[in-house]
Amino acid sequence: MQTKLPDYMIPNRLMWIKEMPVTINGKLDTKALPEFNFSAEENNYCAPRNGVEVNLCEIWSDILRIEKVGITDDFFRLGGDSIGSLRIVGRVREDLALNISVKDIFVFKTIEKLYDNKLKDQVMHSNADVESLDGIELTSSTGEIGLWWIQEIALFDENKFKECLAKLVPHHEAFGIRFKKDADGKYFPCYQTNLDSDQINLVRIK
């Protein structure tokens, strides 16, 4: 098989069974096949060396549905595949804010090698960046100042508000609609485009 297939396509484990279970239709009954035990052997278990590796072991354990994963366990020997590697890449980026690729998992295979060859420098640079910014006063950009100004809560000027509203009425017909009562006591709409600020009454709701 090694002469015909790439490494990642070669079965990691083989199981001998007397016969292949089939359904009543003569097809392979996959549900009746015995399950592999992909759990890492206790004697070969290697514990994580740092917090990042602890998180990686938890991610692998969750995606591979294995109770315990060590840093020297081969991803593919634990039952991993290309789909699983895609999910791991996504989880590492989302949960740990670290960058790896599917190729990295295929090349390094274990958490230990993945950390030493791909993630260690990222973690060190990330920590250095955080420490270097600690206590430093930064200068706000023009855009940030503008956003702060928009969201700043200013004192409410009632007269200014009335003046602005009065100027809006001629430009928006909906603001100029008034309801008046006729001789029969019925209300009818009419337009009043000219509105003086003194005609506006504000009601405070608390």
UniProtKB/TrEMBL annotation:
Lineage: superkingdom: Eukaryota
NADP among keywords: no
Cellular component GO terms, alphabetical: cytosol
A Gene Ontology biological process term: secondary metabolite biosynthetic process
GO terms of molecular function: phosphopantetheine binding
InterPro entries: ACP-like_sf, AMP-bd_C_sf, PP-bd_ACP, Ppantetheine_attach_site
Keywords for the protein's UniProt record, in alphabetical order: Phosphopantetheine, Phosphoprotein
Domain Carrier: 47-122
Keyword Hydrolase applies: no
Pfam families per record: PP-binding
Name of the featured protein: Carrier domain-containing protein
The species this protein was found in: Rotaria magnacalcarata
Lineage: Eukaryota, Metazoa, Spiralia, Gnathifera, Rotifera
